[in-house]
Amino acid sequence: MTHVVPTGAGARHGVLPGGGRAAVLLMLAYLLSFVDRQILVLMIGPLQRDLGIDDVEFGLLHGTSFALFYTIVGLFVGGLIDRYHRVRIIAWAIVVWSAATALCGIARGYAQLFAARVMVGVGEAALSPGAYSLLSDLYEPRRRTVAFAIYATGIYLGSGLAFIVGGRLIGYLETVPPVALPLLGEMQSWRLTFLIVALPGIALALAIRWLVPEPPRGLMDKAEPAGAQDAPAAGGLREFAGFVRQRWQPFAAHNLGFGLHMMLSYAMATWLPAVLMRAHGWGVADVGLVIGTQYLVVGTLGAFAGGAAARWLRARGDASSELTLGALSCAVLLIGVVALVAVPTPGVALLVSAVQIFFVAFPGSLNAASLQIVAPPRFRGQAGALFLLVGNLLGLALGPLIVGLITEYVLGDRAMVGTSLLIVGAATMPIAIALLVWGRRFFRIEPRPPRILAEQPA
């Protein structure tokens, strides 16, 4: 049975026993989720060849299918996380999305593949809300950016492995004839890839089930966010909705600001390989190696750098440093997409992609850590689910799709996908910057005493 940290257990250096192990295992789960999610990006050529789909249908398959139930199920799962055993929910979620990934490999048409991708989203909907809630109860407030930075690196390690290993695997399997498997029939390279990447999920689910502690809720909080003491004692969806209505300004600033950042981030994660392949003639294996290495190295550095920069700024008087740095990241991403189109050479494209990946990763721990400032322990699962609902509707559902629509129906030239990214960036990043700057007033952590404090919404 998963062990439960007893109330009053001693916290060393602001971390409960098992907190470090939990952060690493949850990061590995996040890593695996992004391998299962992002491996599709490198299959655009084989999928368009074998299923006859265009860029819009691929955008729907990569983003909208996944986000459709990820967002809808997310709030329901967030409610379960606020009420029931979080570790068990996460372990079962890993089993579900791994099985769904395997089903992607045996799908015999676009509709079946779309449905399987929906189920991947259903499974992954439990991970981040559960991880946010668990880590918040294992780490005291000023240590949470470290924990969330460890967790956030799973995005970039997972995406990097998806590009590097997936690119090599797909490249190799493309050179061999389709394999005929009993009951499954003829399996092309992309089908076999789905089956292979689904395998590690069961082992990881068991490891999390038995090794991650289930801490008491709110144990590491010295005080709840200002104004939260009068919130309803129950943690149901109706009570949470009332809590959000009373404090809509910080939730709007945070969820929409960081959500628009996610919109451009996911659009770039989906279409940057296509920019290199279509505009510069790169092969899938080479794109996978280069972009994958950037995600592994630069993305991981960006996630940790964001947490370190937030602590550095806070020590120098910026009590809402997470949102300050989120706005900075949006500004750099906007400059980057301009450079990607303005200087269209392979060398500049690679340099720009490295900078972009760094600042895509930079707020990875900041958005989650700052959310805990305005969400009391009894609502953290649902607050995380609400943020993921907004962020993934904007990021996964709309980001890749809008780029595909602009490329196919506005520009009419698939080689101009970089220009489509620029249009999306120019439309979203100024709004994101304005929201995050406005929201800084609601996300202040005072330097002393060590309590979570936040200003009341004006």
Outline:
Helix content is 73%, strand content 1%.
Question: How are the SSEs placed, and which strands pair?
Answer:
Elements: H1 19-38, H2 44-51, H3 55-83, H4 86-106, H5 110-124, H6 127-138, H7 144-173, E1 179-181, E2 185-187, H8 189-198, H9 201-211, H10 237-246, H11 248-280, H12 284-315, H13 321-342, H14 346-361, H15 366-374, H16 380-411, H17 417-439
Antiparallel strand pairs: 1-2
Helix pairs in contact: 1-6, 1-7, 1-9, 3-5, 3-16, 4-5, 4-6, 4-8, 4-9, 6-7, 6-16, 7-8, 7-12, 11-13, 11-14, 11-15, 11-16, 11-17, 12-14, 13-14, 13-15, 13-17, 16-17
Short key terms for the protein model shown above:
73% helix, two-stranded antiparallel sheet, globular, disordered C terminus, Growth Hormone, Chain: A, mainly alpha, 458 residues
